[in-house]
Specification:
alpha+beta; homotetramer; globular; seven-stranded antiparallel β-sheet; 277 residues; six-stranded antiparallel β-sheet
Chain lengths: 277, 277, 277, 277
């Protein structure tokens, strides 16, 4: 449905992530190889942490491949944590408020996949959002509503637990409405310090997700690759589909799992939806 | 907040309504005289009944004054019932799904004014929408939600009654949340056969609304005005503020009243919100 | 680079042309089979002759596949001559003034292909435009400049001759700047009465172009196809790539040729660029 | 026609310039006091020098007042030299390639005013542009063509001289076509090190232009104004109309003059168009 990329590491010019690699995310907007759709032209967005308390966000309803503002901003923005998302709408309108990453306070959120039969469950899920948060929902996507459910269920305190609870609630709601496989997702979220990534689907056949091999290992393997000299040891990318053409640079995130990228040791854990009691 | 125009009569080229008159609606997008805002540049929309079962609708997030598609469509579309609306956002995003007129089946709806403290009451009002209709809400405005409340409360069978019930509900909900004057509105709605117009506000000081004097009377008064020869006896305009410069051409719609334009006798009645029981 | 469709015949609802057929032009915006690019998402345009002296035109910088205004207009506009074009930019910006069909007076023009090494020859070609017409050029494409060269060289009096002269001029200019194959094109133009279509390239391997088989022949072959009952005997489509799935419905326009569609006998002739003397 | 702002000084968050002051540039997009038009809603642009060799540029066809991307970028971009421009079109289309500031290499350029009877002189002026530069012209405004004339006539080596020669050429060309007062302008241009500002019109009644009083003087006058503590001694603003409400903070740029802002001593000189020989 969509493709995304999350970077955490030493500050990097966004164009190094979005334009420079072979089969970059911007290339994928025209020609995705692993996506459910080959074209992801229904708007895009980037988010980054830099100047200011909250992350910067730029959303556009144009396709990414020819967008001059994106190209220009990418060449002039540098950040240690970058989110980028290209959208293939599964039905909701192409408008900036439906573009990822969504932002709430310090938090960014982006999603590839869908809540199946969303029109059947939308109202019940909207009711489950904290009434204080409800008026902040601006768009009409399943992805943004999912974000507000996660916020309602504790995202800011316990991201993995909150996403497990949100997915449990969505699955329970879907089942009540006769939806066989309510959830299909890869998700990234961040508070600017850490990045969490999730891969899960009710049917156990989730959208593709990859994380980059440790930079030190790659450097030893490719002593002549200049980009590997640019970034710090702890820099890491999580992507819907591999960029570039370095053998061994990418590892698949296993089915039904989540991981966290942060200074020090990364972590990869099983993802288990928690049904509401 | 906005300005609008509703026409019913013999088929007319839309540019005759939107561009030709002095102080036309397109002029008002830059320089409104009577509006709460002088500039109404946050998108626009037109709706018309012609070819096809449902009305045609064109929405844009550009200001009307320089929009080439609007100018071109207006010069090439002719219709017996035309709605046009220019928007000054009271906070919700400028996106096509927030542009009036809203459309549901054969029905068009447009609104000037606001539901006050909308963020306080939005969730309660959304819950009051028929769950079957709820997933069809595409934007985030008070005006569209008001339309869906009216549809829920019988708009298609009894437009004046449904709008009175919707306003009663909105006022009751607002009062419950401590809002002093929950409703400010002029509204037009149509099924393509008749056009209903409403003027009301909780505080009894409603946005301006005018209807055109009977064409036969005007023709007698201005035998040399060409536009008056073009249109049928029963043609009628309802507008947020007067167009053109014919003395006596416009009558103010009284406070707290509604009217209907149709073949035969028009009708003007008091508007009385009906609180939910 | 682009895909287009030209219709001439009995008045038809535009959605019958753009949305209803299998592999419709709107489908081709996402997944073209024969185009130089599989995705044609850099804006689109339609033109039609109906109400008013000049043709109606609607341009948008959004991809066609998800554009709600296009879908809505297509369902509410009926015309005897319809042009539609989906764009894959060969470099110039995605903006409405670069969307086809271009319009001048009663004339519409659309182009698939390119003037090669356009930056090398742009200035010389711009100088060759009639100084009276020069200020009317609004965009920055090779296609619009080509239109103004054809207008300069007599398009309104002798369309095939003017296009042959324009291409002769473009080829001579290109050669002077060392361009090997200056011209690649399929073109459609109309004054609302007749439609002319052209297929040519300097290298003799032109972009694909097809015209529909005579409706009477098709009706005899497919007595149960409802769309064939809808349209008049003389209705005709010219398209970049075939729509629908009727065997025998499409004929390739030969290399280096032009044709005209009009009431009575159509005509197909060789296309021979005429170099400036 | 337009309004603009140029800042040079210690690095500042762009929102401090665009949103925070009373009667800020974004306020002026809705309600200009001194402009030829009260509404400047036909697109906007910002340019800044920061990361990278060339300035960053962001252009939009939306009105500035409600643009969420502008608000978000302004809150997350910090730079020592900032240009911002809000547009009221004098006829050319509202598209990103017509938004200021224009960029060429390290140079930014923005203009308020117009080349009068532009359609009469456009072709002659286009011919005067260096043929190497000609293909880089992307939009259709008088302002961008003016920039390319200045570049042709030596902007990068001698900005004041090049602008004097460009204006001389424009005036001579206009006169030849019978235009009484060919030029009306305020202009800002920068290479990232210095900012040049110009005020001139053929008729000697130029659009308004102001520069800020020396920060040290202001600080002494307003010891409690926090913004004056934020910026360095040499920070300076040039604006189409005054921001804020500090008495004595603004000085009018005299008729027919230019100035340069740089480290060390600023400079103010008479502006004298130089006719082509």
């Amino acid at each position: 449905m969509c493709r995304w990329l999350a970077y955490s590491g030493s500050p990097i010019l966004i164009e190094e992530l979005l334009y420079k690699p072979k089969h970059s995310l911007v290339d994928q907007s025209l020609h995705s190889k692993l996506g459910a759709e080959t074209t992801n032209g229904d708007g895009f967005g980037i988010g980054w942490y830099g100047v200011g308390e909250t992350p910067g966000v730029f959303h556009s309803i144009e396709p990414a491949w020819n967008d001059r503002n994106l190209r220009n901003l990418a060449a002039h923005l540098e950040a240690p944590v970058v989110f980028a998302h290209i959208r293939a709408s599964s039905g909701s309108p192409v408008q900036e408020t439906n573009c990822h990453p969504f932002c709430h306070g310090r938090w960014l959120w982006m999603h590839n996949g869908l809540i199946r039969d969303f029109t059947k469950v939308k109202r019940d899920l909207a009711l489950a959002v904290d009434p204080e948060l409800y008026p902040e929902i601006e768009g009409s996507t399943d992805s943004e509503l999912f974000f507000y459910l996660a916020l309602t269920l504790g995202l800011e305190d316990d991201p993995p637990g909150a996403v497990e609870r949100a997915v449990g609630l969505i699955e329970a709601t879907g089942k009540r409405h006769g939806v066989e496989h309510p959830m299909q997702m890869t998700v990234a979220t961040s508070d600017g310090e850490q990045v969490w990534a999730f891969r899960y689907s009710s049917e156990g056949r989730s959208r593709s997700l990859f994380y980059s091999t440790d930079v030190r290992t790659l450097r030893a393997q490719y002593p002549d690759a200049p980009v590997l000299q640019l970034v710090s040891d702890e820099s890491r990318l999580v992507v819907s589909e591999p960029l570039g053409d370095l053998q061994g640079a990418w590892n698949e995130v296993p089915e039904s799992s989540w991981g966290v990228i942060r200074e020090g040791q990364d972590d990869l854990q099983p993802f288990k939806p928690r049904a509401p009691s």
